Amino acid sequence: MKLVTAIIQPEMLETVQKALIRHGVGGMTISEVSGYGSQRGHIEVYRGEEYTIDFITKVRLEVLVDDADAEALTGVIIQAAQTGQVGDGKVWITPIDNVIRVRTGENGTEAI
């Protein structure tokens, strides 16, 4: 099993979600997160004063999949989230040893 994690622009969430559903993904976890990458935040002007925004709001999306589906799923996310602009995000794959469904006690791929 693999955990595919993506940090994407909030405005791309609906597009990515629809692409994942078309790909057959049955469930995902979404979190609002803040951080920065190479762009290091930005400056905004409010009522004539400049403010440095250090952390940029993003969406963290997580999907558990079988090993064989991880690369394809990563491609789906990248294609749906990509705008070509700085700050599009990152996607990574993490190996998962086991998953247990709390309700039924199923584990492994049956719990996905």
Largest sheet: 4 strands, antiparallel
Mean pLDDT: 91
Structural class by sheet pairing and helices? alpha+beta
Low-pLDDT residue spans: none
Cα(first) to Cα(last) distance is 9 Å
Principal-axes shape call: elongated
Q: Report strand %.
A: 35-45%
Strand order of the largest sheet: 2-5-1-6
Radius of gyration: 17 Å
The total count of helices amounts to 2
Classify the oligomer.
Answer: single chain
Q: Tell me roughly what share of residues is in helical segments.
A: 10-25%
Secondary structure: number of strands: 6
Order of helices and strands: EHEEEEHE
Describe the protein.
- By secondary structure, this protein is of the alpha+beta class.
- The protein contains two helices and six strands.
- The strands form two sheets. The protein has a four-stranded antiparallel β-sheet with strand order 2-5-1-6, with helices on one face.
- The longest helix has 12 residues, at 70-81.
- The termini are close together.
